Amino acid sequence: MNASGAEVMPGPAGRGREGDARVGLGLRAIGSETLTTSAYEALKKAITAMRIYDEGTNLRLDERALAAGLGISRTPVREALVKLEHEGLVRTVPRRGVYVVRKSKAEILDIISATAALEGMAARLAVERATPEQLERVAALCPSHHKKMSVEEYSAANVEFHQTVTELSGSRVIAEMLAQLQVHMRGIRGSMMTGDGRMEASMAEHCKIVEALVHGDASSAEQHAKEHALNLASYVKEHVTYLD
Fold first, then answer.
1. Euclidean distance between CA atoms 117 and 225, whole angstroms
2. Domain 14-100 falls in which CATH fold?
């Protein structure tokens, strides 16, 4: 399993002495109540926002630095990391430390395929269940000014778009299943946005989904949502070699 990259430190992201990416968690101090639960939630949120699939990054978690960033002792941080390991988000390497899990290329393609099916059904259900006012919300996420966005801005808009369509499906089961895949899907989508033409292609695909949604075409909405994910899979197959 591929799981290498730079030590995680609280604070802004920078570059390590040897070129590794130092990923800033942006952690805030938490209160004294239910410290383990609060640490778990803070760390999971931070891991979800990481660029796990940027080539060459080392995703080692520094337990001491995490505790300092949260303003708590190392014990609740250690307990939170155990829970995250049970969920498959981190893994402990003996005598080396704790690392955020980065899936192999084959595993990522499998995750994308599952996401395609779930997001396709979410789009279909959104047509059937969402109100016109709710559909206007998702339509507003595909304005022409997206073309002027930076990669970072569009990556954030991309996350919002997918979360909104899922929300409008009204399916708690689909939302929970997609949430389990979100760490890796968000990471790989963000990393692929820097590829030639991928961001522009993603924008165009979003607009096809939106058009089907606002016109009440459930079959087209489902098909375009599936194709959107599967096009990402094709891009990963062709361009990603460092995860093999």
1. 9
2. Arc Repressor Mutant, subunit A (1.10.10)
Segments making up each domain of the chain, as ranges: 14-100, 105-239
The structure tokens listed for 130 are 């969402």
This model's pTM is above 0.85: no
Q: 105-239 is classed in which CATH architecture?
A: Up-down Bundle (1.20)
| Contacts of residue 218, Cβ cutoff 8 Å, sequence gap at least 6 | 123, 124, 127, 128, 212
**In this predicted model, what pLDDT tens digit does every residue of 83-92 receive, in sequence order?**
999 998 999 9
pLDDT above 80 for 58: no
Specify the pLDDT at position 220. 98
All residues at 6 or more sequence positions from 163 whose CB lies less than 8 Å from its CB, including other chains:
none
According to DSSP, the residues that pair with 90 across neighbouring strands are 100
